[in-house]
Amino acid sequence: MISMLQPEKPVRGPIERSSTSAKVAEYLRQRITDGTLKPGQRINELTLAAELGVSRSPVREALAMLAGEGLVRVTPYKGTFVTPLSRERFRDLLDFRVALEQFAVRRAIERATPKELQRLAAVIDEMREHARSGNFLGAVESDLRAHEVLVSMAASPLLEQTFQQLLGEFRLYIAATIRHYEGIDELATEHAALLAAIRARRRSRAVSIIERHIVHGFAGALEELA
Amino acid sequence: MISMLQPEKPVRGPIERSSTSAKVAEYLRQRITDGTLKPGQRINELTLAAELGVSRSPVREALAMLAGEGLVRVTPYKGTFVTPLSRERFRDLLDFRVALEQFAVRRAIERATPKELQRLAAVIDEMREHARSGNFLGAVESDLRAHEVLVSMAASPLLEQTFQQLLGEFRLYIAATIRHYEGIDELATEHAALLAAIRARRRSRAVSIIERHIVHGFAGALEELA
DNA sequence: TTGCTAATCATTGCCGACAATCGACAATGA
DNA sequence: TCATTGTCGATTGTCGGCAATGATTAGCAA
Predict the structure, then answer these.
(1) Average of pLDDT values for B82-105?
(2) Which of A82, A103, A122 is the endpoint of a domain?
């Protein structure tokens, strides 16, 4: 079923691997971050190869790439496993994400263009609209997109790459704790406040808003995990 | 010449790939970070495989892992190349490194144990001794080790992994600009000041010291690059 | 039944070979 | 002279197979 392979996502890090293994890698990223492949689950090379209609070689290369990105763990002769969840890991992800986004905010204040700020505003509007109409998942997606836009405003490829990687793993936890999210109505409000602080170039205020937004937003999820 | 392969480094991220490809990966990391393989240089799979006495499969898997880590770039049917240097990239590395280490400093102030602080002090002594005896490379290595210790004090696996990755690429630039480093005598002094600030739990002071230390230390190198 | 040992099976690690593609150079034509 | 096209060698991408390792289960003895 080669048709299951998506047409090689154009924007995903610096990699442009030989279409086949690149497609397998992208396929696996999808399956991992959307929860089809669960944390800790084993990935059988032969099964996967048959499923995608390719041989094991590109599959193994794809797995090696994902191992390099940290999405899976490989134990020699035992197998490849989706990186498992843990409360400590989530705590670490949260803390590190706060650090990354604070950096993003500081840089955004220095170098964001009006156009980019406008784009962020548009995403926030979208978020507000989703919240108003009760579209829970839509609001969460908009929230994530807003964070991506914020990070892109920092104009740092390294930050961007690191954040994308982190966000991939982060989605695992979002998927696993989705029921613990409350107060999506506040999401847009908080983002709007952040945007205002960035526009006003109020560094310390913006930095503390983003921290509160992230920590507060996932406090419940952290509490209920394992 | 299988003997050229190092005995699978135990501490290097989450990976424990099937010894052979893991060894090849480690071998390549060495060659890349010590400058034997220069930025932009092509890596020939067949040559490398023959050189190490293995087949192309583990070589390709190793290259895929390094691609995931960002050390090399793969272009389909054209080849694998060591990630090239650029002034913009160095600028980005510096900025991002500052952000990471500032995070590390803040966390270290909160949770560093006396034992860890003592270990850092020992490395600084070592650094001072190297500088005094004119051991240039030794002092630079001690400096890097001090930064690693600092980062480890933050007790954040994500930070640690990200920093290690960044440091790998950073070494490329250090190797390329090694002649532009002056004032190694000040290195130990600056680290000592940082350690004192951490011990005194003076957050903002420690954060600004680490920033100055990094930015100032590589200003000359940045200037002279390309 | 329980615990240990050994054989069996599934799965991964590695290899050699073949197909696909690229880059360079020569041949052709305007 | 220059651009275009065709060919060839080199290199990469993929495949199927075999060996090595780990997990499972069957067999046996206490």
Answers:
(1) 95
(2) A82
